[in-house]
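hi!! sorry for the late reply, been swamped w classes. u asked for the two structures so here they r. pasted raw, havent cleaned anything up. first the sequence of the first protein and right below it the tokens
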Amino acid sequence: MTKAKFNLIDALIVAAVILIALVAVWFFGGKSGAETTNETQNTTATFKIQLTKAEKSLYDKFLAGMENDESVWIGIKERFEGKLTGIELSPSTKVGTDLSSGKAVLLEDPVLYDITLEVTADALETKSDISSSNTPIRVGEETAIRGKGFAGYGFVVELVTAMQ
């Protein structure tokens, strides 16, 4: 009968397997539940959505919705509820050419406007993102905003959170 031999190569293989197992446990399960809950906090997100090249009638509908304290829904596929807290109207601009000098200039559009909507919503804030109803809120993200009888499509241009 032959005797099983345990040599240096076998010891290195066993040590490597144990090291890989320890790294996997640390990487996938290293944080405790207490640390995770401390990183997540309830907050109120106040953000602005800018709608460009919209008609004045859309501004009037958003203004009426804000005055009636109606809820709005934000998002394209997944939506979350918010409240309009402010609205601004400014003339829409486009780049045109000054024919006398040949230079590019900003021209105001006489019939279209830029609408900036300020919205407040309950949110969860972590170190990596801010979300409401599992829908992330990010500056620069294109999104839709809907109310009763009106809707618009624009970009989030500002985001501020306040701890509740």
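now the second protein. again sequence first, tokens right under
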Amino acid sequence: MARKKTVKKTARKTVKKTARKAVKTATSKSVAKKKTAVRKKGLGRPRIAGSAELDMEFKGDFGARQIFQFLDVQTFKELEEFSPQEITDRVITPLVQAVERIRKQLAMANRHLSGDQKFARTFQAELSKVMKR
């Protein structure tokens, strides 16, 4: 004949199983939190070495290669020292200055760019004040 299980033994087993599950879930939650915290900090292991040349990776992107040449960088490590805004500012600044010079030259020749007549008049007025002195 089979023995009858007592209520005490079944209760103990249930408590032990519940305790084990609680420990496992608590441990897995803390491990999951640690993993997500680690993932948020970095991007993982780099797929390209820092000393790798940019020209090899950006063979077909002529615009990017021009920016690298303008910044005088050859490797990923050198490029990573710049922020996106800094790169944009360094590339755009000479263009903005060139457009300003063009606007001034046109204004001195009594000409203007499309929709830029107000600037030409203002510049001519300032120029005439300087010339009178």
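hope this helps!! also noticed smth abt the second:
Residues 7-41 form the longest helix (35 residues).
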